Amino acid sequence: MRVTLSDTPILQTERLTIRAPQAGDEDTLIPFLMSERASWVGGGSDCDLGKAWRIFSIVAGHWVIRGFGTFVYCDRASGRPIGSAGPWYPGNWPEKELGWTVWSPEDEGRGFAFEAVRAVRDHVYGELHWNTAVSYIAHGNKRSRALAERLGCWLDEDALPPYPDEPTWIFRHPGPEGSA
What we know:
Largest sheet: 5 strands, antiparallel
Structural class: alpha+beta
Helix content: 25-40%
Strand order of the largest sheet: 1-2-3-4-5
């Protein structure tokens, strides 16, 4: 029996289907989490299969606990998972976050994350009625910083980081009136 997060929204863009995580995503997500490319998001070369599965389970469970969560964005034509983007608000986060990942190096630089985050940002402002969002980006993650800037975000020096001892750039997203 396959169980799904059946009452979660599905967003569409020109190239992407943006949906909740589901069984089968682990085939693409877990290798990403176990790679050095995931060191910015809790994975990395020291991430074993057990830790990768726990991260995947946390992402899926966030939907149940909060009523929203990180989406998986997929190629609209093939259904192939490309990465994740979405609202994130665990218990210790000072503010609601929009985060993103691109799971394969072959998909980087093609505008998929930009397209997904814009659609998700419109969703959280319109459907979840958020009035602000931040993105917590680890110092040194230049690709994510560049994407935040491309999304119209600005560095918010007054915002609090989720982990005060870890150097973090905190980017503030344009509000609902300026997100489209």
